[in-house]
Amino acid sequence: MNKDIKFNFDTYIFDLDGTLLNTLRDLAASVNAALRMHNMPERTIEEVRLFVGNGVKKLMERAIPQGLDNPDFEQTYADFRAHYMQHNLDTTAPYPGVMEMLENLRRRNKRIAVVSNKFYAATQSLCRHFFGDLVEVAIGEREDIRKKPAPDTVNEALKQLGADRKKAVYIGDSDVDIQTALNSDMPCISVLWGFRDKDFLIEHGATILINSPESLY
């Protein structure tokens, strides 16, 4: 991203998994724990990498044989949620440079929010644990609000921040994030350290790509 672009934004709205936090191993461990409980075949890390991005229910729909048609789907999904809430800090950590990036943005009085398709309690818990006051608003999946790529979570974040959409940017690592930004009438910065590679992102419409968090400041 050009240096003359990155200073134009007052508000930075981030995706969580694959953008700020590397959550892949903990997600995969909880997926496989739930699958084992129901004698279902386990999934590899690379399979789980491809399954994430549309919320945890879609993740489990992709991981469970026959998906929603599996008679054990709901219980397996519930077991995944319970396991993940107990184990979502086992290996999860910010990507290198993320903490310094957030601290730099806050020193410059930028507004920061997180919107995620991860369920609400986990989004709140992870953001509090890793980022504290650096992230002002954290919104996860809720029954009363449409998940990404609908613009609802972004709109809610802007509302809670009291921020101007015209001076905001969305940052994420997936095709869902690109579409979310488009639906939210905001520019999108796609990161190259997350769950999707450069070719995939460009194929799905990415126009601004960055290699490291320091590119944002």
Can you walk me through this structure?
By secondary structure, the protein is an alpha/beta fold. It contains ten helices and eight strands. It has helices spanning 3-6, 24-37, 45-51, 56-63, 73-87, 98-107, 120-131, 152-161, 175-183, 198-203, and strands at 11-14, 21-22, 93-94, 111-119, 137-141, 168-172, 188-191, 208-210. The protein has a six-stranded parallel β-sheet with strand order 5-4-1-6-7-8, sandwiched between helices. Strand 6 (168-172), helix 9 and strand 7 (188-191) form a beta-alpha-beta unit. Helix 2 (24-37) crosses helix 5. The longest helix has 15 residues, at 73-87. It starts with a helix and ends in a 7-residue tail after the last strand. The mean pLDDT is 94.
Secondary-structure blueprint:
Elements lengths: L2 H4 L4 E4 L6 E2 L1 H14 L7 H7 L4 H8 L9 H15 L5 E2 L3 H10 L3 E9 H12 L5 E5 L10 H10 L6 E5 L2 H9 L4 E4 L6 H6 L4 E3 L7
Parallel strand pairs: 1-4, 1-6, 4-5, 6-7, 7-8
Antiparallel strand pairs: 2-3
Helix pairs in contact: 2-5, 4-5
Question: What key phrases describe this protein's structure?
Answer:
single chain; 217 residues; alpha/beta; six-stranded parallel β-sheet; 10 helices
Order of helices and strands: HEEHHHHEHEHEHEHEHE
What structural class should be given to the helix and strand makeup? Answer: alpha/beta
Q: Would you tell me the overall average pLDDT?
A: 94
Number of strands: 8
Largest sheet: 6 strands, parallel
- Beta-strand content: 15-25%
Q: DSSP helix count?
A: 10
- What's the end-to-end separation, in Å? 10 Å
Strand order of the largest sheet: 5-4-1-6-7-8
Low-confidence stretches: none
Shape: globular
Alpha carbon gyration radius: 17 Å
Fraction of residues in helix = 40-55%
